[in-house]
Amino acid sequence: MIPPALQAFSSSALPVLDIAGTIVFAISGAIEAARARLTIVTFMFFAAITGVGGGTVRDLLIGAPVFWMHTSIPITACLLSAIAVWFTPARFWPARAVEWFDGLGIAAYGVFGSAKALAYGIPLIPAALMGIVSACMGGIFRDVLAGVPSIIIRPELYVTAVALASGAYVSLTALGLSTTIAADLAVLAGFSLRAAALIKGLGLPHYKR
Amino acid sequence: MIPPALQAFSSSALPVLDIAGTIVFAISGAIEAARARLTIVTFMFFAAITGVGGGTVRDLLIGAPVFWMHTSIPITACLLSAIAVWFTPARFWPARAVEWFDGLGIAAYGVFGSAKALAYGIPLIPAALMGIVSACMGGIFRDVLAGVPSIIIRPELYVTAVALASGAYVSLTALGLSTTIAADLAVLAGFSLRAAALIKGLGLPHYKR
Amino acid sequence: MIPPALQAFSSSALPVLDIAGTIVFAISGAIEAARARLTIVTFMFFAAITGVGGGTVRDLLIGAPVFWMHTSIPITACLLSAIAVWFTPARFWPARAVEWFDGLGIAAYGVFGSAKALAYGIPLIPAALMGIVSACMGGIFRDVLAGVPSIIIRPELYVTAVALASGAYVSLTALGLSTTIAADLAVLAGFSLRAAALIKGLGLPHYKR
């Protein structure tokens, strides 16, 4: 069931991005729970659903075993992240710092999601979308459950930065670049766009027709 | 993994309904984004999630490979639908015309979803429900993400029309009718009921006990 | 595809909990529809999504065939539950009685979900979480679709009681207890905690840092 290309994928540096991205998203989920003054159990629930939600949808769509079902590491990392946020004062998690951390997380996780999809034989366009799903779906679940406007609705360059990272990775590897160089360039491009959005408040134009 | 009955299914006319339904739903998703004055990236996101959402849930439930993962056509159709809606004035998409178009789409997609479920060996009652899931779940995702009351809450005959189409197809084929005749009759029945609802504002009675 | 440990699981008493839990959740979904004064079709939709939603997510995550796809019994039970609620006055379903019934349902279904995950070879921590997903996700879907604050947000001991039942079952079987004794003790522990919460209004402390 696991395609041979997956071997090369597993032995590359990419899987490291997986656990790093999971922790970044888990922390952002727990912080949302902190803002809503919820309980330790809901901290854990939000951390888990935000941390593994996007990767779970990606794995179900591409037909891969769900990544946190055959090892306890990702979900344990989410639960520990929730406990860490619970036991630290809110000022330890300034919104601005979290957003920068998250900006790196979504670019890296977008590239990772697309790389995993390609390793499972998914064509270029759906593979690029799998990067966006991986990086954004956990945050969408978090926002819908918390009842706040989803990241998908905000005009800010957020999904667009992930789309740049995922699209660049898929395009560059299709052009023959090595996965390592393509991943580095793609993460850099996506994170730079997100950084520009954070610094200058860049956003996309709204529909006005 | 793919049952033999699927061969006959694939060579029938039914799969044509798949891409047509996807485009109808994608346009309705992009129009929701237009009403909320969102950006081109959110247009694409809404078009994609509305266009392929219902069929994705159906495929996951019946154990089929997710239909837009092994060909780029459905998702490309969604993205192009979003671009088309973005570049045209809102008056090109009068709510009334969209509703008629959508009424045909849900009846056809409901029949298609049930037919695919039957081809995968799903029993009659769950197969009829798979038609409803296929036709309605994308719109539910669209409404939840946009924060508007879901189609499922409205009293209007909407889900009921899909249920009629799906149920009629499953019943008629179980009675021995050919898939083509059963599909034609079922789409006609579902669309007629939806048309009656649109013309006369027909709705189901509310619970009052 | 089905692991051998599943044989023992299927021949134990646990699967009985499955249909009982499904009916309890279906009734709670239909009652939510009754409170919102919806129609018979939406009663059925809410009963189905609440009744089979949690178990569906569990099965997709652990890689099992979705339980209501190869037998018509669970979904038929949901539809009949909806019809039963529709035809009885609201006073037949006092909120308090439903909550006690639901408290037993979530404890039993949490244990069942974890047992099924263990039977599919899922490690302890994710398996405990699968119990929580099985018991709580249907209610979350119900609340998100109805537009009411999700059970996950309320401070009351609800998810915590499920976590106790699931965690106790996973721990006790890991320590070598028979599945029957572990299941009995775990359901008792989870239901007792939920009962204490219902009687004394017990809740978890909120984040205040």
From TrEMBL, chains A, B, C:
The superkingdom listed in its UniProt entry is Bacteria
Answer whether the UniProt record assigns the keyword Mitochondrion to this protein: no
Q: Where in the cell is it found?
A: Cell membrane
- Pfam families in UniProt: Gly_transporter
- Primary location: membrane
Which GO CC terms are listed, alphabetically? Answer: plasma membrane
Query: What InterPro entries would the database entry show?
Result: Gly_transporter
Give a yes or no for keyword Coiled coil in this entry.
no
Record field: transmembrane: 12-31, 38-55, 67-88, 125-145, 157-175, 181-199
Topology relative to the lipid bilayer, per the entry, is:
Multi-pass membrane protein
What's in the keyword line of the UniProt record? Answer: Cell membrane, Membrane, Transmembrane, Transmembrane helix
Please give the family membership noted in the entry.
Answer: Belongs to the UPF0126 family.
What's the protein called, per UniProt?
A: Glycine transporter domain-containing protein
**UniProt source species:** Gluconobacter albidus
The beginning of the lineage is:
Bacteria, Pseudomonadati, Pseudomonadota, Alphaproteobacteria, Acetobacterales
